[in-house]
Design goal:
Keywords: Metal-binding, Nucleus, Repeat, Transcription, Transcription regulation, Zinc, Zinc-finger. It comes from Triatoma infestans. GO terms for molecular function: DNA-binding transcription activator activity, RNA polymerase II-specific; RNA polymerase II cis-regulatory region sequence-specific DNA binding; zinc ion binding. 43% of the residues lie in helices and 12% in strands. It has 225 residues and is an alpha+beta fold. It folds into four domains: 45 residues, Classic Zinc Finger (Double Stranded RNA Binding Domain, 2-Layer Sandwich); 56 residues, 2-Layer Sandwich (Double Stranded RNA Binding Domain), CATH 3.30.160; 45 residues, Double Stranded RNA Binding Domain (2-Layer Sandwich); 34 residues, no CATH class. Strands 1-2 form a two-stranded antiparallel ribbon. It has a two-stranded antiparallel sheet with strand order 3-4. Strands 5-6 form a two-stranded antiparallel ribbon.
Length: 225
Amino acid sequence: ESGYSCTSSLYLSAYSTTKSGDKTYKCSECIYSCTHSSELKVHMRKHSGEKPYKCSECDYRCTNAGSLKLHMGTHSGEKPYNCSECDYSCTQSAKLKRHMRTHSGEKPYKCSECNYRCTTTGGLKRHMRIHSGEKPYKCSECDYSCTQIGHLRAHLGRHSGEKPYNCNECDYRCATTEGLKQHMRTHSGEKPYECSECGYGFTQSAHLKVHMRIHSGEKPYKCSE
């Protein structure tokens, strides 16, 4: 016996279902199943699009009270979850768990097609598009499509000319955070991409790729004349 007691037979019934692991409530739209009718009710909002919980500070809406509570942290600035290894803090325990993998080196999500591993399900999902060829993000100005929303934002900057990311060391501006990160290495001297054959370092992986052809002898570009 677990020693559990409660004030209602309904609560006892719900507890017994949870304890047994029986998932009697099944979604009619997908394979989702759960132990409580309230959980199924929340899940069905994903199919119906219903978002009854609304933020009082902005236009954000969501399907459940828990998500709204997490969202409100973006307005209050409260970040109760703190990393024990560095100064990182965040609004959700799940985010802290993902962050801790940057310290531990743990990469629990593995690609079924190659040796790629990563720290998040989102990262694996993006990677799998390399194998499937799926490019769900499409430019409204031209035929460009890509695998990641960040790449689309960078591309759209070419149409608009917008360069919102500024270097704090010089006048350099660019359209993406990755572009700024690469540029900052010209100031810091950091060269994280190192040749395994000679030890020469580069600020960008693309530069290392070109350099490796010196060792491999590869000459992929041929004159058509």
